Amino acid sequence: MKAFVIHIATAAIVLTCSPAWSGAIYSSSAVSSFAIGTADAVEINSNTGSKTEIGAASASHTTIFITGSGVLPAGKIIDVSGTATGPGTSYAESTRMTGHVIRINNEGGPGPDTTDIRIAFGFSFSWDVDLSADDPMRDFASAGAFFALSGFEAGIDAIDIDGDGLGPLTDPFMSSAYIFNPTYTTLGGGTGGSGTITIGGFIIVRAESIGEFSVITDATGRAFHIPEPGSMLLVGLALAGLAATRRRKVA
To answer: How far apart are CA 128 and CA 108, in angstroms?
Structure first.
């Protein structure tokens, strides 16, 4: 009995004195809603996610809500999260990409009366990012969101966006895109951030044309735990890949 008590006491001391492993945590939520006055069709063009887990790490990516084809306004709610802890090297990364294709039909049939159309739209989006790093020399986390109007196809003559602080954005050559990519890191003590933006504007579709473009909403994040201080190479790799993947419309 005495030996048993000694074993229990020794185990308690070991557990009490064992080091608490440090770690990094990220979470990112992205929400968007796109409304337009007239659209011939709305389709979901992608709903993909990926995650990487190395060592003592876990990552997740979730689509909480996304409206189906033909439904306006086109809305999305997505989340990613992950954690990386000691004792060894660990790495967590997750990404979720979602989008809708907006198709505007201005074919109107043959005849000289068909004209270009100018259709008003509104795009509202918000993000909420939380980060933590227990040891700034060993732990690193980053996360962000990605919102875009892009992938303009033949038929879209111009896009005119007001309310984003950038002034009108028009491009008759269909190469322009509205992109907003808020990102955060724990470097310098960062803990994340949140915000909401609403923009409005007009889509101009040429006569006798069908115009298409994509409304993109993504979230991404990553976390490192490095056993020994000074391995800034991993931190550099994290920063290099921080921004969410910029995607054009998938046909």
So the answer is: 43
Of 202, 183, 201, 193, which Cα lies nearest the Cα of 242?
183
Predicted TM-score of the model (pTM): 0.82
- Token pair in block for residue 165: 């602080």
Say if strands 178-180 and 139-150 run parallel, antiparallel, or are unpaired: antiparallel
- Residue 47: what pLDDT? 83
Distance of alpha carbon 117 from alpha carbon 101, whole angstroms: 19
Report the C-alpha gap between 130 and 184 in whole angstroms.
Answer: 9
pLDDT class of 117 with cuts at 50, 70, 90: confident
Q: Is 5 helix (H, G, I), strand (E, B) or coil?
A: helix
What are the two backbone dihedrals, phi and then psi, of residue 156, each rounded to the nearest 5 degrees?
A: -80, 115
**β strands within 86-230, DSSP E:** 90-106, 117-133, 139-150, 156-162, 178-180, 183-185, 192-205, 209-225
Count of other CB atoms within 10 angstroms of residue 185: 23
SS3 99: strand
Tell me the CA end-to-end span of the chain in Å, nearest whole number: 74
Taking alpha carbons only, the member of 63, 133, 125 closest to residue 92 is: 133
How does pLDDT run across 132-165, given as a tens digit for each residue?
Answer: 999 998 999 999 999 998 877 777 766 777 644 4
Tokens linked to 119: 């259709």
Q: Please say whether the beta carbons of 124 and 196 come within 8 A.
A: yes
Q: Has residue 8 got a pLDDT over 90?
A: no
SS3 234: helix
Query: Containing H/E element for 48?
Result: strand 41-54
Q: Specify whether the backbone of 67 is left (phi greater than 0), alpha (psi in -120 to 50) or beta.
A: beta
CA nearest to 36, candidates 125, 120, 152: 120
